[in-house]
Amino acid sequence: MPLLLAGWLTSIITQAHPVLPDSLGMEKKDGKLYVLHRIEQGQTLYSLVRKYNTTIQAIKDANPGLADGVRYDQVVRVPASNLSRKEEKAVTKAIKKEEKESLKREEREVKQETVREANSGIHQVEPGQTLYSLASRYGVSMDEVRKWNNLSSDHIVSGQALIVSEKAWRVREPLAKPVAVAPTHRSDSSTEVSRTSRNDSPKTERPAAPPRTVPTPPREEPSRPAEGERPATEPSSPAPSEPRIIRPGDSGPLPNPGGNTRRISEIGMAEIIENSGNSNKYLALHRSAPIGTLVLVRNDMNQQSIWVKIIGRLPDTSVNDKVIVKVSARAFEKLSPADRRFRAEVSYLVP
């Protein structure tokens, strides 16, 4: 990448090239030094040849694709000639210094950009906002917001600063701690040598005594039943299965109705209970299901289902004509994390 040097660099070789202060600066490419010259009004390639004491071919070689005619305000690379070895070293040193400073500036800019991106993923909670409303606003899930902010519940307060983007979270994510490696136990060679030196003489091992044999008493054969007689076997009865306990938040299927119970199923739209974002419970509003009943709500689109507890009646208004159930934000997140409403089936058992 060409490196442009300002007028302070060209002043190093002003005496050798009195025309350099009129140029844009200098550039080092492929080990060669060039003057960067901006074409002024009325200038031609021949005028550059006279100005810089070079040739047209040298200028064309330094500018591949350059036409015979140049235009006003065009920047042309011109080989720097008549430079002493000392001047070339001074220019090269200045170029390296400028390159280091340029790299430092780029690193500072990258760090500043990273900080800006991290700060752009921070939201300060305003009055009335909930975890669900913030997740919907920034296009993320409630689980992600909880993870990024180490929240143990959905309760948030006004003025609280929350991370609402994965990029901002990764900037703040602490570096993984290095895993401690257990030291490897190596045998001490000196100890082994000394141990061997003390035991130079071979030892004669005594043969091991044969194991003692204990006579085994004769086993008594159990009396066999007479021919035609068979022991009576008790009929095995299957163990009674315990009834499954269903709790709000479970996702199991609806039990089979038994006894005097019957199953009721409805199909319609499901929506979220407003201002329920700070609740961690799986709750619902329904028109007719008895309060306290557990009902199974299933999303027809993704087949996700969850048990919720009825805590109140669904208002009988025109707005809720096609709505059969409203669930809390926690339950809504499990059933439909992306949509604001969905087609659902509600099932429950009644006596």
CATH architecture of the domain at 9-104: Roll
Strand order of the largest sheet: 6-10-7-9-8-11
Instruction: Note the overall shape.
Output: rod-shaped
What is the gyration radius calculated from CA atoms? 43 Å
Helix proportion? 25-40%
Protein name: LysM peptidoglycan-binding domain-containing protein
Region (Disordered): 179-261
Biased composition (Pro residues): 208-217
Domain LysM: 121-164
Q: What's the helix and strand layout?
A:
Elements: H1 7-10, E1 25-29, E2 32-38, H2 45-52, H3 56-62, E3 75-79, H4 85-120, E4 122-124, H5 131-137, H6 142-149, E5 161-163, H7 166-172, H8 189-198, E6 262-272, E7 283-286, E8 294-299, E9 305-313, E10 323-327, H9 329-335, E11 342-350
Helix pairs in contact: 4-7
Quick overview of this protein structure:
This protein is α+β, with helices and mostly antiparallel strands. 27% of the residues lie in helices and 19% in strands. Among the domains are: 96 residues, Roll (Membrane-bound Lytic Murein Transglycosylase D, Chain A); 53 residues, Membrane-bound Lytic Murein Transglycosylase D, Chain A (Roll), CATH 3.10.350; 89 residues, RlpA-like domain (Barwin-like endoglucanases).
Task: Provide a descriptive summary of the structure in words.
It is a single chain. This protein is an alpha+beta fold and 351 residues long. Among the domains are: 9-104, LysM domain (Membrane-bound Lytic Murein Transglycosylase D, Chain A, Roll), CATH 3.10.350; 121-173, Membrane-bound Lytic Murein Transglycosylase D, Chain A; 262-350, Beta Barrel (Barwin-like endoglucanases). It contains nine helices and eleven strands. The chain has helices spanning 7-10, 45-52, 56-62, 85-120, 131-137, 142-149, 166-172, 189-198, 329-335; strands at residues 25-29, 32-38, 75-79, 122-124, 161-163, 262-272, 283-286, 294-299, 305-313, 323-327, 342-350. It has a six-stranded mixed beta barrel with strand order 6-10-7-9-8-11. Strands 1-2-3 form a three-stranded antiparallel beta sheet. A hairpin with a 2-residue loop joins strand 1 (25-29) and strand 2 (32-38). Helix 4 (85-120) crosses helix 7 (166-172). It is rod-shaped, with a radius of gyration of 43 Å. Mean pLDDT is 75; it is low at 1-19, 175-182, 187-194 and 196-202.
